[in-house]
Amino acid sequence: IPLPPLQFGQVLVGLMMARTITPDILGAMAKDAPLFLLFVFSVIAIATGLGWLLTRWQVLPGTTAVWGSSPGAASAMVIMSEAYGADARLVAFMQYLRVVFVAVGASVVSRLWVAADGAAPPPLILFPAVDWPAFAATIAFAGFCAYGVRRLRIQGGMIIVPLFLGAFLQGIGLLKIELPMWLLAIAYALVGWSIGLRFTRSIITHVARALPRVAACIVLLMTLCGCMAAALHVFAGIDPLTAYLATSPGGADSVAIIAASSNVDVPFVMAMQTGRFLVILLIGPMLARFIARRSGLAENPA
Fold it and tell me: What is the average pLDDT across 221-246?
């Protein structure tokens, strides 16, 4: 995949994430900040510990396991990991395997725990009506971000810059992020192809060997997060399904759909998911480098 369209696709993914950071979500996080910080950092600590174990056991090379175990922001972690010297192919394998496990687990738990209220999830419309002025502004802003990151050579900037700058401009009302589904499909295809086309026979063999241990770590992570959900229910009085979805380790898109069609506190769930996602973006590179140093691994940023 040529670099300019790939980078533009990465910027669009960053803007898609920025669109989810609304004043309502930020307000919910600020309202219960100590509770959010405690559970956000607890989930991240558990996931990082499991990633460190996979690194120590040399299940995956270098810091790949650390990036791959991040409990959220799957697309961002895959894109950023390569900029920091990890193998994006193996990171993608770990991240999207976790997303599948989490989505299936959340769906099963929501059906077993409480009956849905009958509301159908929002339909997926590939070609929706488009606000063309907002769309033009979004594309222009995406181009500006891609150009600026290239010129300034900001590590991981194709995700970080549009995400935070876009969220800020959206929050103060200067930018309406308009991203129709067909454009996001193209962006995800570009990012996916850029990774998938680099898979080789040796990488696939490595993935097959690592699969049982990686899957076991994902199941353990989900189990520990389930225990944290129980603690959130007992000590904070949050209803069980809301607590489970809020502490679910990633898969935010799937969790959002399940939450919207269930009788749960949707703002609380999305605030917890978004808060963890933002913290991971901010401290993920530092954690990977710290574990690389502690494990005696080389880290070669691109």
Answer: 92
